[in-house]
Amino acid sequence: MTKDPDARTPEPGGPGLRSDAQRNRERVVEAARDVFAEQGLDASTNEIARRAGVGVATLFRRFPTRDDLIAAAFADKMHAYSVAIDEALADPDPWSAFCGYIQRVCQMQADDRGFADVLTMTFPTAKAFEEERNRSADKLTELLDRAKAVGRLRQDFAHQDVPLILMANAGVVTATRDAAPDAWRRLVGYLIQSFAAETARPIPDPPTPRQMYRALMRLSRKTS
Amino acid sequence: MTKDPDARTPEPGGPGLRSDAQRNRERVVEAARDVFAEQGLDASTNEIARRAGVGVATLFRRFPTRDDLIAAAFADKMHAYSVAIDEALADPDPWSAFCGYIQRVCQMQADDRGFADVLTMTFPTAKAFEEERNRSADKLTELLDRAKAVGRLRQDFAHQDVPLILMANAGVVTATRDAAPDAWRRLVGYLIQSFAAETARPIPDPPTPRQMYRALMRLSRKTS
DNA sequence: CCCGAAGTGGAGCAGGTATTCCAAATGGGT
DNA sequence: ACCCATTTGGAATACCTGCTCCACTTCGGG
């Protein structure tokens, strides 16, 4: 009687949830983090529920769509992702800031198979991330501008090149994770060198921002 | 292509097959080529049979394992792949030969989703390809040596870097195929520039040949 | 033209997903 | 201690796969 039928709070940890329910929710999120990290975003729902020690119904009640679960599982990694660029902006040397940022983000991909997917297939998943992404985008532009201003980053480096790097890196880490876990460092080493202004030579145009946006949106729906 | 009774392929098309059976076999191979190109190596068997207009039993009778089908479907693209390096070796300028080869192979990945998989996940599939690969490996070494000898290719470029490039490129093409089909050219542009001797700066060591071999063998068995 | 061997297609099976439903268990306010 | 709304686990459903089996069809040599 005292309960309000529509007192649903959309996303936070657990507002009106019973204490045990809230605990179970957290267990699901933790299991999802683990499983996604190991197996990528297309890991089986059953596996996550099993690993969390709850029934599948519990998982679905708390996270009706897969995107809800992904958003919850990667919320803090997305935060770390945007913190990374803040830290980069704090570096007095814009070039080392840029290089450090690229390496950091690629490292995050190497560490977490699911997160590599989130960063490349990306937004399909969550509006929750969209805001964070937009903030990051502005900061990224700032970072690139600084590195160009000091003459270290080539002028024709486009911000679309960053997701391009992430996609390339994702290709390497998914292929080499088991057999050669550090192979991606070599790729990134090559790439960063090619971003240096002093050695820049003409290369094909980058994809347009709009193309890149659409590429990132891809695959929310499977092959069809 | 080019139906030639004794062109190559030891015992492929059909030795003692009835004429209709042989025709069906060819239809399956063609359907497999199309479907693999569109959907990648993990396309559904049923889909291929349906597209070929035959029953699934026919497909399985002719190609008991998936690898058999893959080998048949990509035989001529593998041949083209090894021809590409011959053509590169025919180029009098070792550096443009090298650059052209990389671009050519990456182009092939961009054109065929399944072939991109074959080149990166690779051999899981076929001993048939192994011989072709070994021949190619020797020729590749020759190509790299020449380019290094004329001082255009950096000395620390390792032959393992080639599959590394293919993996990176595969990451980009799978992500951007629909929205930005030429994005991979930009990546390859960056990479090739970083392979030039004159601008070379130290980068992390490449994976060992053995690591790379194991990486290529990966995923013959799923996640387990 | 005929008939056995070769070839065929689709139903069927085992095993995998995502998602829904509901009888039973549980928390926590009283 | 009680009671009922909330929460739960697992069975049930509805698809997908890969792969096999077998009654029927077709080829092609005589």
From TrEMBL, chains A, B:
Kindly list the organism's lineage. Answer: Bacteria, Bacillati, Actinomycetota, Actinomycetes, Propionibacteriales
Extract the SUPFAM superfamilies matched here. Answer: Homeodomain-like, Tetracyclin repressor-like, C-terminal domain
| Protein name per UniProt | TetR family transcriptional regulator
- What Pfam families does the record tag this protein with? TetR_C_43, TetR_N
Renumbered to this chain, region (Disordered) spans 1-24
Native species of this protein? Kribbella caucasensis
Gene3D superfamilies noted in UniProt: Tetracycline Repressor, domain 2
| Listed transmembrane segments | none
| Domain spans labelled HTH tetR-type | 22-81
* Plastid keyword on record: no
Listed GO MF terms? DNA-binding transcription factor activity; transcription cis-regulatory region binding
